[in-house]
What we know:
CATH class of the largest domain: Alpha Beta
CATH topology of the largest domain: D-Maltodextrin-Binding Protein, domain 2
CATH superfamily of the largest domain: Periplasmic binding protein-like II
Amino acid sequence: MIKKLIHQATTLFVASVIATAALAAETVTVGGKFFTEQYILSEMTTQLLQAHSIPVKQITGMGSSLVRKAQENGEIDLYWEYTGTALIVYNKVTEQLSPKQTYNRVKELDGKKGLVWLKPSNANNTFALAVRKQDVAGNGLHTLSDLADAYRNKKEIKMAGTAEFIGRSDGIKNLQKAYDFRVPRSQLKSMEAGLTYTALKDGLVDVALVYATDGRIAAFDFELLKDDKQFFPSYAVVPVIRKETLEQYPELEVILNQLSVKLDDATMQRLNARVDIDKKSVRTVAAEFLTANNLL
């Protein structure tokens, strides 16, 4: 009798473990990188999936290469990626492509790896160089060609950039080649991404690296220098999902595409500012946006 009870208990335990594993396998893991825009996109995605009764968990605050590797390994099912990052960093494509060509190329290359790129948004979080609007009249800087002219004429212009920007192929090194100028080492300041904005706002530098959808651009009264030679790649933000996950939950394509078409530069700047400037919680900002756009 005791043996029979032990056998039954063991059977129930094993069945419980199998059921738990099956449930975990059905959970969609939403990933995200370590900056405000990604926290917002991950939270909106999580809330959307929850609203459609899809089991979901969220892992955010990851480095770019780490979240990509996690998705390729099946640890992350879904996150929002940038076309330029996938093209240059992950797929090592260095040729200059149009925004449409960039999207099509990464969709094709990543498709071979079991990753599906859904509908691209109109939010392009590309690199940009910014100046203070109050200085534009005096320094005459409106375009990157104007900036290049200023450096060629030996004007002292302090620039703030990140270590990543200074080292990447789509960063300062090749920007200087494209526009035929050179920033003297003494005038190029390397700092963390968030600090470039405050350095420019406080007048510690004259031009700074920013990201085109950052909420601080409008809040700090910056003007973006026009990339008149179209050097910077397109960084359209797009939901990317593992093929296996999409096959399990095909409704995700419609759900995520409905969100993607609502996003553009101005919208992301506003949402980012709500968190970074107005100090609203990511959860609140995400919920308000989804509700206002009839997505919840």
